[in-house]
């Protein structure tokens, strides 16, 4: 009986954009909520809070996009340089590269005859792809994609910042800081749990990490705002 092809689904294929999106949303929410708390602690009213929050959201989104693009572009350039060098070595010394691939298969535990047979088959099919994967650790689903990472990071930062601004805007004046703190911490915990779940990790551990660092950042910025408000 012929069985149908089983298509497996792996999380590692989205590691790049998932990391950028989680980092962006986390940074957008924590930095904007902390900024708003600091300004409120210094005596700033709603117009000041919204102006500063919107400016911070726009600047932060572009900053995150630029940082991710430059960082991932550097990785992509390094990968391209490695592949170009490997392509040149394959053209200049195919026999030596085949022996290198045989050694890599033997290091994985294959006996000599099988290692050579596998290396020869891989080289005949796609020598550069085989060396990229087995020697350099570069695979198609894990290749650096600068534009994708930049867009994911910017959009995620803007979303996180927008949620903090929305909480500040909708909260009653007397409870503004309390609503901002509680809603931000809940969102951070949810974001941590969601990211962990998408990555296959334990959600509660990630949620507690988010709560701890987010609470620390907001407390420090609130204290800085209180101290600055007393001198200005």
Q: What count of helical segments does DSSP give? A: 7
The shape, in one word, is: elongated
Low-confidence residue ranges:
1-13
Order of helices and strands: HHHHHHH
> Hey, roughly how much beta strand do the residues contain?
under 5%
- How would you sum up the major sheet? none
Rg computed from alpha carbons, rounded to a whole number of angstroms: 25 Å
Summarize the structure in words.
- The protein is mainly α.
- It has one domain (14-223).
- It is built from seven helices and no strands.
- The protein has helices at 15-41, 46-92, 94-107, 112-134, 146-170, 176-199, 203-231.
- Helix 2 (46-92) packs across helix 3 and helix 6 (176-199) runs antiparallel to helix 7 (203-231).
- The relative contact order is 0.18.
């Amino acid at each position: 009986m012929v069985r149908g092809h089983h298509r497996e689904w792996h999380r590692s294929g989205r590691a790049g954009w998932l990391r950028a999106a989680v980092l962006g949303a986390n940074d957008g929410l924590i930095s904007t909520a902390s900024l708003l708390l600091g300004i409120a602690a210094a005596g700033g009213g709603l117009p000041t809070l919204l102006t500063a929050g919107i400016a911070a959201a726009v600047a932060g989104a572009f900053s995150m996009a630029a940082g991710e693009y430059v960082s991932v572009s550097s990785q992509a350039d390094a990968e391209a340089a490695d592949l170009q060098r490997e392509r040149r070595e394959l053209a200049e010394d195919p026999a030596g590269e085949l022996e290198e691939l045989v050694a890599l298969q033997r290091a994985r535990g294959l006996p000599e005859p099988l290692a050579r047979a596998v290396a020869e088959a891989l080289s005949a099919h796609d020598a550069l792809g085989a060396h990229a994967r087995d020697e350099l650790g570069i695979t198609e689903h894990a290749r650096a994609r600068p534009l994708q990472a930049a867009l994911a990071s910017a959009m995620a930062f803007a979303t996180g910042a927008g949620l903090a601004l929305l909480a500040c805007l909708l909260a009653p004046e007397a409870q503004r800081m309390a609503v901002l703190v509680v809603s931000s911490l809940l969102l951070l915990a949810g974001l941590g749990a969601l990211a962990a779940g998408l990555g296959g990790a334990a959600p509660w551990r990630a949620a507690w990490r988010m709560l701890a660092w987010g609470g620390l950042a907001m407390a420090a910025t609130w204290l800085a705002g209180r101290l600055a408000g007393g001198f200005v």
